[in-house]
Amino acid sequence: xxxxxxxxQVLETxxxxxxxxxxxxxxxxxxAVEMLLACRGHVVVSGLGKAGLIGAKxxxxxxxxxxxxxFMHPAEAFHGDLGRLRDGDVALLISNSxxxxxxxxxxxxxxxxxxxxxxxxxxxxxxxxxxxxLVLDVGRAAEACPLGLAPSTSTTVLLxxxxxxxxxxxxxRQFSREDYARxxxxxxxxxxxxxxxxxxxxxxxxxxxxxxxxxxxxxxxxNSTRGRPGAAMLVNAAGALSGFxxxxxxxxxxQEGTSFLAEPASSIMTRSPQSxxxxxxxxxxxxxxxxxxxxxxPVVDVNNHPIGLVDVQDVLSARTL
Length: 321
Prior knowledge:
CATH superfamily of the largest domain: Glucose-6-phosphate isomerase like protein, domain 1
Number of domains: 2
Radius of gyration: 30 Å
Strand order of the largest sheet: 2-1-3-4-5
Strand content: 15-25%
Order of helices and strands: HHEHEHEHHEHEHHHEHEEHEEHEEH
């Protein structure tokens, strides 16, 4: 068998094992979701070896999608880490064989602590399954390993079912994109879900002037604003955004002379400028900045009153691209 043939066989074997698992899901899976939803503490995941690595990933996925969780090594549990458990926790124990000694030994201590146990295993009649409150059985599947020994197919289906469990909880909790962003402020996905109000300039960092003010007064106000935003938002008598005036607009008019400085700003402002709301995504603001070929974007409230300003540099600094 060539290397490519072996690789394709591995992928097909593991993919088929996952597909074979789909029709087996039923009431136990739904009960498992309900058990974790009812958890008042953390979902404490434990497993040894390859199953432990799978468990750590499942725990991380849960924690990042709204289900409080942490991983506990089964050996370390007997040397003090059982003290991490609290009333209301649920233990998710993972062992493909269901006979892993270190994992099975956890059952009695967990029982004494009043911790409910959910087993994820490939052996529904194993010691682990018998000691659990609820069992998710992935069944037995031939390993993709050419020797039939190294955990491969078995770990793949354990991981897939763990993902199914964690992501079913996302739906059940009505976990939103905004929730996800709060848990991932430093990651690319989270940064793409930043809201405008998280990066916009506000307060004494923006220039808001009446449209009746002279161009000279607006220019002085822009230069006096903290951070020199390079633009002013102009408002009508009701305080609603009516126009926008930038340094670029002023520079272009200066080529024609200075007499316009005494004119009202409304005479040269960009009327009904493009704007965004504070609760919209930064990605939308960036799209507008790019497609309109502008450097600043007013931020308005529900009454179209200016409350902030997004500069292209603000978006670049947030590294949302």
